[in-house]
Design goal:
By secondary structure, the chain is of the alpha/beta class. Strand 4, helix 3 and strand 5 form a beta-alpha-beta unit. It contains 6 helices and 5 strands; from the N terminus they run H-E-E-E-H-E-H-E-H-H-H. Helix 4 packs across helix 6.
């Protein structure tokens, strides 16, 4: 595997920082405004429906342009969902693609080994254990959950609509995407 990595680095490769997150119907509560002496109340259904999202923050090899790719799912993510997301990345990104992610269970197994064998331009690398501060994609989740905070979606479809608008807004903002890179503890070569 080492010769492939050297070739990928020599030719220039897209770096894609990948992570997953869940969004619940129960609102996340953040600091907000209220009249003096009145505690704000958020009324919501006590439902534990959720959406799972996998995303990748991509950095192009030459101009360091940034892109955000994501898939939404109604259920918990599995290795097959991860493979489908990686295939989407490969369709959109030319040349070698180096994916950096954590050591989660859905990032391992025979499906991913088969995908790497079928697409030699795909390279999978892991962050050190317990190091979310290295992954800029964590910043995407911070932004998205901050924008959705104190909201009260009535059902999963309303949550999906709000989440799509939020993620598309983040995708269209080079400033926000660059902020995700610079807030991480990555070495400064990407800043």
């Amino acid at each position: 595997m080492a010769p492939r990595k050297k070739n990928a680095a020599r030719l220039g490769a897209h770096l894609v920082f990948v992570d997953e997150s869940g969004f619940l119907l129960i609102p996340s509560v953040r600091r907000t405004w209220a009249p003096v002496g009145q505690t704000p109340l958020l009324r919501h259904w006590q439902r534990h429906d959720r959406l799972s999202v996998i995303s990748g923050l991509a950095v192009s090899p030459r101009r360091q342009r940034l892109g955000l790719y994501f898939h939404l799912h109604d259920d918990n993510l599995h290795a097959a969902d991860t493979c489908a997301f990686l295939r989407t990345l490969l369709r959109h990104l030319r040349g070698h693609v180096i994916v950096l992610w954590d050591g989660g269970k859905i990032h391992k197994g025979p499906l991913l080994r088969a995908l790497c064998a079928a697409f030699p331009r795909l390279h999978l690398e892991r962050f050190p254990p317990y190091a979310p501060e290295l992954n800029p994609d964590e910043g995407v989740w911070t932004l998205a959950k901050g924008k959705l905070a104190n909201g009260r979606p009535d059902d999963r479809e309303v949550l999906r609509a709000h989440l799509l608008v939020t993620l598309l807004g983040i995708r269209q903002s080079p400033r926000l995407l660059r902020g995700c890179i610079t807030q991480s503890d990555l070495p400064p070569f990407l800043r």
